[in-house]
Amino acid sequence: MLYAVVDIETTGGFASGNGITEISILIHDGVSVIDTFETLINPAREIPEYIQALTGISNEMVMDAPVFNDIAPKIYELLHNKTFVAHNVNFDYSFVKHQLSLAGYQLQVNKLCTVRLSRKILPGHRSYSLGKLCTALGIEINNRHRAGGDATATAILFGMLLQADAEGIINQSLNKASKEQVLPPNLPKSEIEKLPLNPGVYYFKDQKGKVIYIGKAKSIKKRVCSHFTGYSTTKQRQDFLKDIYSIDFEVCGTELMAFILEASEIKKLWPANNRALKRFEQKYCLYTFEDQKGYLRLGIDKFKKSVPVLYSFNTILEGHNLLKALIKEHLLCEKLCFIQKNRQACTAHQEGNCAGACVGKESAAAYNVRVKYAIQDLKKMLPTFAVIDKGRTEDEQSCLLVEEGKFYGMGYISHHTDINAPEELKSALQPYPSNDYILHMILSHAAQFPQKKIAI
């Protein structure tokens, strides 16, 4: 079997937005290196200063070097039908495969990662970075952070791994049934093996145990593995491959519960690689407050975190429609509800539908009684119900509670719990923050599966 030990230098950290500045390929027959290829490459873009400082490769050095397309046939010839070997192989492979595909070549070969292999065959080292591992093993690296120097050191390391592999770990890794080579270099296979096939939420963690990404899944194990399949060249996936060291998870009874837990956990933990849900905020809300004259005021305004909310809306029109319905039903003043702003007296007062709170003809005490009735009616209008579904085991069932139009919380109850006893139900549930995103998911699910909804 022939191996191609590869190292590259690049202009940045992910393949789709960067180029290769240097490549070194050493053909290894399992005993020694039998062929070599090394060249600078013009990446057709500027090399950032910090990359120049790290590698010593400047814009001037690559100015007259071949572009990748010129050497693509040679590189493909060297790599085709060989096992691609590199230290953190997914990084080098993603760049080479991407550049070859742009040149019209489709590279499909087996891969071996000397980081992952070293962790298994040579356990116990404090670090498995190329520099520190080679120092610990007595491998001298000449010309560090250059493709030739790093590739030569990797080839020596690979030779040591071949000799020390008494348990056949390398052959096991090359087995097509083993998907280990697609995993991030710092993620042990045992972290994948422990994952269940149940619905739930998973947490990618970095070396310090900090959560860097949260996801939800119908099947936790399948969804997690899907992050590492294919050869996406986006920055987010490259960050995954580099930073994921461990995975935690929480099993949920249903996919809906996983959606809700994911949304809540993202807002709570604020992981670096989650974006869409972190940007979600309530938009408009119905508030009440007492003004300086003692009148209770109702009004629609943008969401404020520190102010109690009567109800929330995605659009200001939706809020105004509800507020106008309350005004009409309880003869409230449109001016005191901020529907009309420019008149001394509201239009309804002129028509006999407002007792004149807007011009001081109705006392605050009398007006406030109707406002309080309006708020009570609003609460009656807002739904209170539970969504009952399967649990994590056959001995329980899942429950989500919506109380007066707000998501209260969720959890697991026995089949004998009295659903229509709100306090008994609440004692078994974990409260969660409510927002329109979560409430919309629950309402949509209840509309789709009305048999799971139980009015309380």
Automatic annotation (TrEMBL):
Stored Pfam families: GIY-YIG, RNase_T
CDD domains named in the record: DEDDh, GIY-YIG_UvrC_Cho
Any one GO BP annotation for this protein: nucleotide-excision repair
SUPFAM superfamilies (alphabetical): GIY-YIG endonuclease, Ribonuclease H-like
Domain GIY-YIG intervals: 197-275
GO cellular component, one term: cytosol
InterPro entries (alphabetical): DnaQ, GIY-YIG_endonuc, GIY-YIG_endonuc_sf, GIY-YIG_UvrC_Cho, Ribonucl_H, RNaseH-like_sf, RNaseH_sf
SMART domains: EXOIII (SM00479), GIYc (SM00465)
Gene Ontology MF annotations: 3'-5' exonuclease activity; DNA binding; DNA-directed DNA polymerase activity
Subunit structure: DNA polymerase III contains a core (composed of alpha, epsilon and theta chains) that associates with a tau subunit. This core dimerizes to form the POLIII' complex. PolIII' associates with the gamma complex (composed of gamma, delta, delta', psi and chi chains) and with the beta chain to form the complete DNA polymerase III complex.
Cross-referenced NCBIfam families: dnaq
Function: DNA polymerase III is a complex, multichain enzyme responsible for most of the replicative synthesis in bacteria. The epsilon subunit contain the editing function and is a proofreading 3'-5' exonuclease.
Name of the protein this chain belongs to: DNA polymerase III subunit epsilon
The species this protein was found in: Pedobacter ginsengisoli
